[in-house]
Amino acid sequence: MAVDYTVIVVYLAGMLAMGWWGMRRARSKSDFLVAGRRLGPAMYSGTMAAIVLGGASTIGGVGLGYQYGLSGAWMVFTIGLGLLALSVFFSARIARLKVYTVSEMLDLRYGGRAGVISGVVMWAYTLMLAVTSTIAYATIFDVLFDMNRTVAIILGGSIVVAYSTLGGMWSITLTDMVQFVVKTIGVLLLLLPIAVVKAGGFSEMKAELPTSYFDPLGIGGETIFTYVLIYTFGMLIGQDIWQRVFTARSDRTARWGGTVAGTYCLAYALAGAVIGTAARVLYPKLGSPDDAFATIVKDELPVGVRGLVLAAALAAVMSTSSGALIACATVANNDIWSRLRGKATSGDHDEVQGNRAFILIMGLGVIGTAIALNNVVEALTVAYNLLVGGLLVPILGGLLWKRGTVQGALAAVTVGSLAVIGLMAGYGILANEPVYYGLLASLAAYAVVSLVTKPTDATVLATWRERLDGRAAPEPTSEPISASR
């Protein structure tokens, strides 16, 4: 294992080094939170793919393949569909708004007063997303070093908090690009073909497994619908995703770079399902489907390759964890704390320091929460139920329906969030009903309240349209970035 350990240690050291390098570039709020809004197509595509394909997509995607066969690809596939929809239909308009958070968009569209409530809901979502990613370190470090769960979470979480705090979005962007390359090599180019060959090829896999493992809809229509509702729509409105859209250099970069990343997600989804199916042939009696990834890596891969593939899993977890962490800190500082405090910072440098402090504070909170929690699936379900049930309607309504009002938006956020929480308490956290009925309640509240209240002021809508058309004043930037980046 010495070679594998060396690969992992070099990888982790590289992440910290990039955090230090990114700190030198983060000289303004724009640099720190959205990488100066200057990423070119190649870097934008890689980092966007990195953040959406995390531990759930890698370890969980293989686990679903182990349990259901090729139809286990649907969870990650719906993530890719959501990213494609965001990129094709909304990303250009989102990028032109020149805001930092989803709540700022809601305030701009509705004329204020929606920010704190929507910020609290979005903060809860990003916090739980960061926690679930951080918990996943325990699985990977247990395979690598037979490490205690708490120590593994502290080690992995501390590295992510360190490089995120140092350089903000610049550090996260640079590390995500490396993580994207490592994931591509480790999972798509190495683990996928090796797993298929070890399982005897597709003909042997078909001979050994029930036909349901090769049915594209074998996982069930209701499950697929739920994945679409939670993950496809969740991709459209999450702060962690929007914050990456804000980094794009132009409308074209956001649209086409995101389309490339979404297409990559579709390929990654199929790869995970195939690897899981191969693992089912090799290890038909694993205790948990989520053990499939670690087991096939540990038992079937040669020295060195095993370290690289485990580094790929670590990369997947770190990219999602760091993206969720900076999103959580940005919302906490800009949408909640600054509004409650009621006064602005005294300068751009102070804003960098303030956001850096919030990343550190939120990071420590995430590590502590991850140590206390055990059930990753439940935490992730709570996060996405709150996001979709509380914020989908007012966000998409603001982008698509001119008659929507601030009172309607506040009603949708409040009713949808409370409905989801109450229904989860009644039906159970993992039930499908909370997000179904919560979303319907949010939609009804938004439509009814918007129609019975005074339309949004014409001046507010004029400012909104000016932003959407890209006629807002440009932000000051640091030195230009080369076209290749």
Structure summary:
The protein has 485 residues and is an all-alpha fold. It contains 19 helices and no strands.
Describe the protein in words.
The protein has helices at 2-25, 29-34, 41-52, 55-68, 74-96, 102-110, 115-145, 149-198, 201-208, 221-237, 239-245, 251-282, 292-300, 305-341, 348-372, 376-400, 406-427, 433-452, 458-468. It is an all-alpha fold and 485 residues long. It starts with a helix and ends in a 17-residue tail after the last helix. Helix 3 packs across helix 14 (305-341), helix 7 runs antiparallel to helix 16 (376-400) and helix 11 (239-245) packs across helix 14. The longest helix has 50 residues, at 149-198. The radius of gyration is 22 Å and the shape is globular.
Question: Which keywords apply here?
Answer:
485 residues, mainly alpha, 19 helices, 79% helix, globular, disordered C terminus, membrane, Na/solute_symporter, Sodium:solute symporter
Secondary structure: elements and pairs:
Elements lengths: L1 H24 L3 H6 L6 H12 L2 H14 L5 H23 L5 H9 L4 H31 L3 H50 L2 H8 L12 H17 L1 H7 L5 H32 L9 H9 L4 H37 L6 H25 L3 H25 L5 H22 L5 H20 L5 H11 L17
Helix pairs in contact: 1-8, 1-14, 3-8, 3-11, 3-12, 3-14, 4-12, 4-14, 5-10, 5-12, 6-7, 6-16, 7-8, 7-14, 7-15, 7-16, 8-12, 8-14, 8-15, 10-16, 11-14, 12-13, 14-15, 16-17, 16-18, 17-18
Largest sheet: none
User: How many β strands by DSSP?
Assistant: 0
Please report the distance between the alpha carbons of the first and last residues.
Answer: 36 Å
Helix content: over 70%
Q: How large a portion of the residues is in β-strands, by DSSP E?
A: under 5%
Mean pLDDT: 85
- Give the oligomeric state: single chain
* Shape call: globular
The SS-based structural class is mainly alpha
Question: How many whole angstroms does the radius of gyration measure?
Answer: 22 Å
The number of helical elements comes to: 19
Subcellular location: Membrane
Pfam families: SSF
InterPro entries: Na/Glc_symporter_sf, Na/solute_symporter, Sodium:Solute_Symporter
Protein name: Sodium:solute symporter
